[in-house]
Amino acid sequence: xxxxxxxAYDGTNFHGxxxxxxxxxxxxxxxxxxxxxxxxxxxVVAGSGRTDAHVHxxxxxxxxxxxxxxxxxxxxxxxxxxxxxxxxxxxxEVAPDDFHARYHVVSKTYxxxxxxxRARSPFKRHYASYFPYPLDVEKINAALQxxxxxxxxxxxxxxxxxxxxxxxxxxxxxVVHDFEAEELLFTFSGDGxxxxxxxxxxxxxxxxxxxxxxxxxITKILSEKNxxxxxxxxxxxGLYLKEVHYK
Length: 247
Fold this sequence. Notes:
Blueprint: E1 2-9, H1 26-37, E2 46-47, E3 56-65, H2 72-82, E4 87-94, E5 105-115, E6 129-130, H3 137-145, E7 149-152, E8 167-178, E9 183-190, H4 197-209, H5 217-224, E10 239-246
Parallel strand pairs: 3-10, 5-6
Antiparallel strand pairs: 1-3, 1-4, 2-3, 5-9, 5-10, 7-8, 8-9
Helix pairs in contact: 1-2, 3-4
Protein backbone atom coordinates (compact mmCIF):
# COMPACT_ATOMS: atom_id res chain seq x y z
CA UNK A 1 0.00 0.00 0.00
CA UNK A 2 1.31 3.43 -0.93
CA UNK A 3 1.35 6.27 1.59
CA UNK A 4 1.87 10.00 1.16
CA UNK A 5 3.30 12.00 4.06
CA UNK A 6 4.03 15.66 4.69
CA UNK A 7 7.33 16.19 6.48
CA ALA A 8 8.86 19.25 8.12
CA TYR A 9 12.51 19.52 9.07
CA ASP A 10 15.12 21.88 10.40
CA GLY A 11 17.87 21.72 7.79
CA THR A 12 20.62 23.12 10.03
CA ASN A 13 22.36 19.80 10.66
CA PHE A 14 21.54 18.11 7.35
CA HIS A 15 23.63 17.91 4.20
CA GLY A 16 20.40 18.11 2.20
CA UNK A 17 17.44 15.84 1.59
CA UNK A 18 18.87 13.21 -0.75
CA UNK A 19 20.99 10.31 0.51
CA UNK A 20 24.72 10.95 0.14
CA UNK A 21 27.77 8.73 0.74
CA UNK A 22 29.07 11.17 3.36
CA UNK A 23 26.92 13.44 5.47
CA UNK A 24 23.65 13.22 7.36
CA UNK A 25 20.54 13.58 5.17
CA UNK A 26 16.78 13.76 5.70
CA UNK A 27 16.07 10.88 3.33
CA UNK A 28 18.52 8.57 5.13
CA UNK A 29 16.97 9.35 8.52
CA UNK A 30 13.45 8.72 7.18
CA UNK A 31 14.61 5.44 5.65
CA UNK A 32 15.95 4.30 9.04
CA UNK A 33 12.71 5.27 10.79
CA UNK A 34 10.47 3.50 8.28
CA UNK A 35 12.59 0.35 8.34
CA UNK A 36 12.05 0.21 12.13
CA UNK A 37 8.31 0.73 11.67
CA UNK A 38 8.29 -1.95 8.96
CA UNK A 39 9.86 -4.55 11.30
CA UNK A 40 13.28 -4.38 9.68
CA UNK A 41 12.10 -4.77 6.10
CA UNK A 42 13.50 -2.25 3.58
CA UNK A 43 11.41 0.80 2.64
CA VAL A 44 12.18 3.16 -0.23
CA VAL A 45 11.39 6.84 0.36
CA ALA A 46 10.79 9.20 -2.57
CA GLY A 47 10.63 12.95 -2.01
CA SER A 48 9.05 15.73 -4.02
CA GLY A 49 12.53 17.08 -4.69
CA ARG A 50 15.89 17.79 -3.16
CA THR A 51 16.68 20.54 -0.73
CA ASP A 52 20.29 21.62 -0.28
CA ALA A 53 22.39 21.57 2.87
CA HIS A 54 20.97 23.77 5.67
CA VAL A 55 17.70 24.44 3.78
CA HIS A 56 14.51 23.89 5.79
CA UNK A 57 11.10 22.47 4.91
CA UNK A 58 7.65 23.12 6.31
CA UNK A 59 5.84 20.96 3.76
CA UNK A 60 8.12 18.44 2.04
CA UNK A 61 6.11 15.56 0.56
CA UNK A 62 7.30 11.96 0.45
CA UNK A 63 5.78 8.65 -0.58
CA UNK A 64 6.64 5.10 0.46
CA UNK A 65 5.13 1.62 0.26
CA UNK A 66 4.30 -0.76 3.12
CA UNK A 67 3.10 -4.35 2.73
CA UNK A 68 0.03 -3.92 4.88
CA UNK A 69 -2.59 -1.33 5.77
CA UNK A 70 -1.80 0.80 8.82
CA UNK A 71 -3.83 3.08 11.03
CA UNK A 72 -2.94 6.50 9.62
CA UNK A 73 -2.61 8.41 12.88
CA UNK A 74 -0.55 5.61 14.47
CA UNK A 75 1.70 5.59 11.39
CA UNK A 76 2.09 9.38 11.51
CA UNK A 77 2.80 9.25 15.24
CA UNK A 78 5.35 6.48 14.74
CA UNK A 79 7.23 8.38 12.06
CA UNK A 80 7.06 11.57 14.11
CA UNK A 81 8.32 10.10 17.38
CA UNK A 82 10.87 7.64 16.01
CA UNK A 83 12.54 10.17 13.73
CA UNK A 84 15.22 12.54 15.07
CA UNK A 85 13.99 15.71 16.79
CA UNK A 86 14.77 17.87 13.75
CA UNK A 87 12.24 15.96 11.59
CA UNK A 88 8.47 16.05 12.12
CA UNK A 89 5.72 14.11 10.36
CA UNK A 90 2.72 16.41 9.93
CA UNK A 91 0.31 14.07 8.17
CA UNK A 92 -0.02 10.68 6.48
CA GLU A 93 -2.65 9.54 4.00
CA VAL A 94 -3.21 6.62 1.66
CA ALA A 95 -2.16 7.47 -1.90
CA PRO A 96 -3.04 5.87 -5.24
CA ASP A 97 -0.66 3.07 -6.22
CA ASP A 98 0.67 5.16 -9.11
CA PHE A 99 1.18 8.36 -7.09
CA HIS A 100 4.73 9.72 -7.20
CA ALA A 101 5.81 12.50 -4.84
CA ARG A 102 8.23 13.95 -7.39
CA TYR A 103 6.82 13.27 -10.84
CA HIS A 104 3.25 14.35 -10.06
CA VAL A 105 4.15 17.78 -8.64
CA VAL A 106 2.18 20.62 -10.22
CA SER A 107 3.84 23.50 -8.36
CA LYS A 108 5.88 24.40 -5.29
CA THR A 109 5.98 27.34 -2.91
CA TYR A 110 9.19 28.51 -1.25
CA UNK A 111 9.75 31.16 1.38
CA UNK A 112 12.97 33.03 2.07
CA UNK A 113 13.61 34.99 5.28
CA UNK A 114 16.12 37.83 5.53
CA UNK A 115 17.24 39.22 8.89
CA UNK A 116 17.60 43.02 8.53
CA UNK A 117 18.59 43.82 12.13
CA ARG A 118 21.66 45.99 12.62
CA ALA A 119 23.13 43.43 15.01
CA ARG A 120 23.07 39.78 13.99
CA SER A 121 20.58 37.82 16.08
CA PRO A 122 22.07 34.65 17.58
CA PHE A 123 18.55 33.17 17.57
CA LYS A 124 18.04 33.65 13.82
CA ARG A 125 21.46 32.63 12.55
CA HIS A 126 20.21 29.21 11.38
CA TYR A 127 16.80 30.42 10.15
CA ALA A 128 17.27 33.67 8.23
CA SER A 129 19.92 35.10 5.93
CA TYR A 130 21.60 38.16 7.48
CA PHE A 131 21.61 41.43 5.48
CA PRO A 132 22.08 44.54 7.70
CA TYR A 133 22.28 47.08 4.87
CA PRO A 134 19.82 49.72 3.60
CA LEU A 135 17.15 48.38 1.25
CA ASP A 136 14.60 50.02 -1.01
CA VAL A 137 11.71 47.56 -0.79
CA GLU A 138 9.80 49.40 -3.52
CA LYS A 139 12.62 48.65 -5.96
CA ILE A 140 12.58 45.00 -4.87
CA ASN A 141 8.82 44.88 -5.46
CA ALA A 142 9.23 46.34 -8.94
CA ALA A 143 11.92 43.76 -9.76
CA LEU A 144 9.74 40.91 -8.47
CA GLN A 145 7.07 41.74 -11.05
CA UNK A 146 9.57 41.11 -13.85
CA UNK A 147 10.01 37.50 -12.68
CA UNK A 148 6.33 36.60 -13.07
CA UNK A 149 5.31 34.48 -16.04
CA UNK A 150 7.15 31.96 -18.18
CA UNK A 151 10.86 32.56 -18.79
CA UNK A 152 14.11 30.75 -19.42
CA UNK A 153 15.77 31.02 -15.99
CA UNK A 154 19.26 29.89 -17.10
CA UNK A 155 20.72 33.12 -15.69
CA UNK A 156 19.34 32.23 -12.26
CA UNK A 157 20.62 28.63 -12.24
CA UNK A 158 23.84 27.60 -10.49
CA UNK A 159 26.50 25.64 -12.35
CA UNK A 160 26.33 21.91 -11.80
CA UNK A 161 22.72 21.52 -12.92
CA UNK A 162 22.08 18.64 -15.31
CA UNK A 163 18.63 19.93 -16.32
CA UNK A 164 18.53 20.89 -19.99
CA UNK A 165 15.17 22.67 -20.14
CA UNK A 166 15.42 25.71 -17.89
CA UNK A 167 12.07 27.26 -18.80
CA UNK A 168 9.88 27.71 -15.74
CA UNK A 169 6.67 29.58 -14.88
CA UNK A 170 6.57 31.77 -11.77
CA UNK A 171 3.01 32.45 -10.58
CA UNK A 172 3.79 34.28 -7.33
CA UNK A 173 6.73 36.49 -6.35
CA UNK A 174 6.15 38.73 -3.33
CA VAL A 175 7.97 40.34 -0.45
CA VAL A 176 6.64 41.48 2.93
CA HIS A 177 8.62 43.82 5.18
CA ASP A 178 7.97 42.94 8.82
CA PHE A 179 9.18 46.08 10.62
CA GLU A 180 8.64 44.66 14.11
CA ALA A 181 10.63 41.49 13.44
CA GLU A 182 13.13 43.39 11.25
CA GLU A 183 12.74 40.81 8.51
CA LEU A 184 11.88 40.46 4.85
CA LEU A 185 9.76 37.49 3.86
CA PHE A 186 9.94 36.50 0.18
CA THR A 187 7.43 34.03 -1.27
CA PHE A 188 7.85 32.31 -4.64
CA SER A 189 5.44 29.87 -6.29
CA GLY A 190 5.93 28.17 -9.63
CA ASP A 191 5.79 24.97 -11.62
CA GLY A 192 9.40 24.19 -10.77
CA UNK A 193 12.67 25.70 -9.59
CA UNK A 194 16.21 25.14 -10.86
CA UNK A 195 19.34 24.40 -8.84
CA UNK A 196 19.74 27.23 -6.27
CA UNK A 197 17.33 29.37 -8.34
CA UNK A 198 15.46 30.93 -5.41
CA UNK A 199 18.69 31.75 -3.58
CA UNK A 200 20.20 33.41 -6.67
CA UNK A 201 17.00 35.40 -7.24
CA UNK A 202 17.04 36.63 -3.63
CA UNK A 203 20.75 37.52 -3.84
CA UNK A 204 20.00 39.55 -6.96
CA UNK A 205 16.96 41.27 -5.41
CA UNK A 206 18.97 42.31 -2.36
CA UNK A 207 21.57 43.89 -4.64
CA UNK A 208 18.80 45.75 -6.49
CA UNK A 209 17.28 46.90 -3.21
CA UNK A 210 20.71 48.10 -2.08
CA UNK A 211 21.01 50.22 -5.28
CA UNK A 212 23.89 48.16 -6.63
CA UNK A 213 21.86 46.90 -9.60
CA UNK A 214 19.06 48.50 -11.60
CA UNK A 215 15.54 47.03 -11.51
CA UNK A 216 15.72 46.09 -15.19
CA UNK A 217 18.76 43.90 -14.47
CA ILE A 218 16.19 41.13 -14.04
CA THR A 219 15.10 41.50 -17.67
CA LYS A 220 18.74 41.51 -18.80
CA ILE A 221 19.56 38.33 -16.87
CA LEU A 222 16.51 36.57 -18.32
CA SER A 223 17.16 37.66 -21.91
CA GLU A 224 20.92 37.03 -21.94
CA LYS A 225 20.73 33.81 -19.87
CA ASN A 226 23.98 34.73 -18.16
CA UNK A 227 24.55 33.73 -14.52
CA UNK A 228 27.39 36.26 -14.25
CA UNK A 229 24.90 39.12 -14.61
CA UNK A 230 22.95 38.01 -11.51
CA UNK A 231 23.75 38.66 -7.88
CA UNK A 232 25.37 36.29 -5.38
CA UNK A 233 23.70 33.14 -4.13
CA UNK A 234 21.94 33.97 -0.86
CA UNK A 235 22.85 31.83 2.14
CA UNK A 236 20.81 28.61 2.49
CA UNK A 237 19.57 29.05 6.06
CA GLY A 238 16.90 31.55 4.96
CA LEU A 239 15.21 29.15 2.54
CA TYR A 240 12.12 27.05 3.36
CA LEU A 241 10.17 24.65 1.18
CA LYS A 242 6.72 25.77 2.27
CA GLU A 243 4.30 23.66 0.23
CA VAL A 244 4.11 21.17 -2.63
CA HIS A 245 1.00 21.19 -4.78
CA TYR A 246 -0.57 18.27 -6.65
CA LYS A 247 -3.66 17.92 -8.82
